[in-house]
Amino acid sequence: MMRLVQGDVGCGKTAVAMIAALTVIESGAQVAFMCPTEALALQHFLSAQELFPLEKYRTKLLLGSTSAKEKKIILKDLIEGNIDLIIGTHALIQDTVQFKNLGLAIIDEQHKFGVDQR
User: What's the pLDDT at 103?
Assistant: First the structure.
């Protein structure tokens, strides 16, 4: 299913997305959270680290600027199910990105992506 959360700046759209992510992770699936810019992806990643304790939830950041060595590790961990929440940019929709059990895909500011990307 597809759902749209719309609202003014600061009304809690990201909080709703994070609660949905937590629900999906708790059910045993993975979550991908795609943002249009590296700055926004980093902002969401830092927020997620505050909300989801690292000892319980495995959260990673994947950007176009992520080093090749780190990308290789992240891609391996994703397909093995060792990452619960992956936050990133267009890097998340590359052919090399595969999930073990993707349960939710969140697209922040989806209007900034093309039709094929959405």
Answer: 95
Q: 18-29: string of b/e by CB count within 10 Å (b at 16+)?
A: bebbbebbeeeb
**Residues with Cβ < 8 Å from 54, sequence gap 6 or more?**
none
Nearest to 22 by CA among 33, 12, 37, 11: 33
Our CA angle for 99, 31, 52, nearest 5°, is: 130
In this predicted model, what pLDDT tens digit does every residue of 56-89 receive, in sequence order?
889 999 998 999 999 999 999 999 999 999 999 9
3 versus 36: the higher-pLDDT residue is: 36
What fold, for 28-112?
Rossmann fold (3.40.50)
Task: Locate 93 and state its tokens.
Answer: 């929709």
Structure tokens at 82: 């060792």
Q: Where are the domains of the chain?
A: 28-112
d(CA 24, CA 42): 21
